[in-house]
Amino acid sequence: MWQGLDIFLAVVEQGSFSKAAQALDVSTSHVSRQIQQLEERLGTVLLQRTTRSINLTDEGVAYANKLKVIQQELMDANNELQGVQHTPKGPIRITGAGDFMANRVAPAIAQFCKRYPEVSIHIDFNARNVDLIEDGFDLAIRFGRLQDSRLIARKLSTRNMMLLASPEYLRSAPPLATPLDLQHHKCLIALSNRWRFNLNNSIEEVKVNSQWRSNNPQAIIHACKAGLGIAHLAEDIAAEYVSAGELVALLPEYQVDDNASWLIYPRKDLIPLRVRLLIEFLMAQFQ
After folding, report:
1. Do 271 and 245 share a structural domain?
2. How many domains does the chain fold into?
3. Residue 79 falls within a domain, yes or no?
4. In this structure, is residue 76 part of a structural domain?
5. In this structure, is residue 77 part of a structural domain?
6. I want to staple 20 with a disulfide (CB 3.0 to 4.6 A). Which of 10, 26, 64, 286 is the partner?
7. HEC per residue, the chain
8. What is the pTM of this model?
9. Are residues 189 and 227 in the same domain?
10. Which structural domain, as residue segments, surrounds residue 127?
């Protein structure tokens, strides 16, 4: 009765036989055979196959929606029993980068592990914008704006930006009266060469030029202190250097206030208990 249902739901969630096979650690032919046998038992076609994609039939949509409800109720029952009888256990894979991840998120996760010692954590400090679903990560910490509609984003912390330069650079640099003047300056690029500012009563992007790029904010700080150009970094990273007089904050009146670090996770029906607990723990810590 239950044979093939988990495979059918995996195909629905992953969007292809090959991705479902990878997620379930089985062969693609096994997935295809199980779907075919399920359709034969039900006497209806659930998936329309083409050479490039698969699509649910109307019957497939209705069947998948009902199965998801049953699956969620089963998971809730298991989680409730687990919460009563056991502590959460198993691996959680997290990706993120930068000082915020290392100095603020990682210590919070360490406290979570003290509370739930049977959970194992793998943190990948990778500035690359990895595909959580393809690469098998449970959570990500990201800075900026969410692009992927398959993901859920929850704000951990608002992070205002600062435009920075060293006194040495400013002594010989061209005038800087508005962000538009940045086009005539040397800039140090961390994430993007399009910097956002409040201009003309709206948020606009200014494209900047650079001979120095790095996805590590400390490398940007060192280059900025050395007088190589102007940096645009989060305030919590740069404020100490401004307070020490090593860097100067520029054009604060033009800074936007909508930058944040986000907790990101895949949009799917079933999230393991250990992952859900970590999500809520981090949200509570940063609230």
Report:
1. no
2. 3
3. no
4. no
5. no
6. 10
7. CCCCHHHHHHHHHHCCHHHHHHHHCCCHHHHHHHHHHHHHHHCCCCEEECCCCEEECHHHHHHHHHHHHHHHHHHHHHHHHHHHHCCCCEEEEEEECHHHHHHHHHHHHHHHHHHCCCEEEEEEECCCCCCHHHHCCCEEEEECCCCCCCEEEEEEEECCEEEEECHHHHHHCCCCCCHHHHHHCCEEECCCCEEEEEECCEEEEEECCCCEECCCHHHHHHHHHCCCCEEEEEHHHHHHHHHCCCCEEECHHHCCCCCEEEEEEECCCCCCHHHHHHHHHHHHHHC
8. 0.60
9. yes
10. 87-159+260-286
Q: Assign residue 198 the CATH number of its domain.
A: 3.40.190.290
Tell which of 40, 71, 102 closes a domain. Answer: 71
Asked whether residue 106 falls in the same domain as residue 128, the answer is yes
Task: For the chain, 287 residues long, give each residue's pLDDT as a single digit of tens.
Answer: 667 888 898 888 888 888 888 888 888 899 989 999 988 888 999 998 876 778 888 888 888 888 877 776 676 666 666 554 557 888 899 998 878 888 889 999 999 999 999 999 999 987 677 778 777 889 999 887 666 667 888 889 888 899 999 999 999 999 999 999 999 999 999 878 999 999 988 889 999 998 899 888 889 999 999 999 999 998 988 999 999 999 999 999 999 887 888 999 987 666 888 898 999 999 999 87
